[in-house]
């Protein structure tokens, strides 16, 4: 059964690891990589932080678009995707901490941020244009 808009947003707000997909050209399939992220319901966008030297950054800059998939592996099995344009801005320790706190206890999140070379990272903002999602039920 298709998810409602509220259910899709709720999925994005869960602390699950997302799969980011970006076009890598006609000779290869899309790059798909796991990502920590945050959804901002006020700004209505998804943000993640990644290393400037990562291949996905080069591909994101070239294509200007991405798809993000989140899924729940426990009943009820659900997924939601957002697809849209991406933009870049400098990363900050504050945003990295907000994202890390979704996945780690505070002490580990703070250590992660402290040990991260944030000046070599970018914040990628994905603005959803298309949404899909479904509840596959319990099996």
UniProtKB/TrEMBL annotation:
A GO MF label: oxidoreductase activity, acting on the CH-CH group of donors
Full protein name: Pyridoxamine 5'-phosphate oxidase
UniProt entry tagged with the keyword Oxidoreductase: yes
Keywords: Oxidoreductase
Transmembrane segments annotated in the record for this chain: none
Keyword Transferase: no
GO cellular component, one term: cytosol
Signal peptide range in chain numbering: none
Database matches in PANTHER family: HEME OXYGENASE HI_0854-RELATED
SUPFAM superfamilies linked to this entry: FMN-binding split barrel
């Amino acid at each position: 059964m298709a998810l409602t808009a509220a259910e899709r947003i709720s999925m994005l707000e869960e602390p699950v690891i997302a799969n980011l997909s970006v076009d890598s050209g006609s000779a290869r399939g899309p790059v798909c990589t796991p990502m920590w992220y945050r959804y901002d319901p006020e700004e209505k966008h998804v943000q993640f932080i990644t290393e400037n030297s990562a291949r996905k950054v080069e591909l994101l800059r070239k294509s200007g678009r991405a798809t993000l998939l989140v899924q729940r592996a426990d009943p009820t099995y659900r997924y939601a995707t957002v697809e849209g344009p991406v933009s870049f801005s400098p990363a900050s320790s504050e945003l990295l901490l907000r994202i890390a706190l979704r996945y780690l206890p505070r002490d580990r999140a703070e250590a992660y941020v402290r040990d991260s070379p944030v000046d070599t990272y970018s914040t990628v903002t994905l603005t959803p244009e298309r949404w899909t999602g479904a509840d596959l039920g319990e099996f």
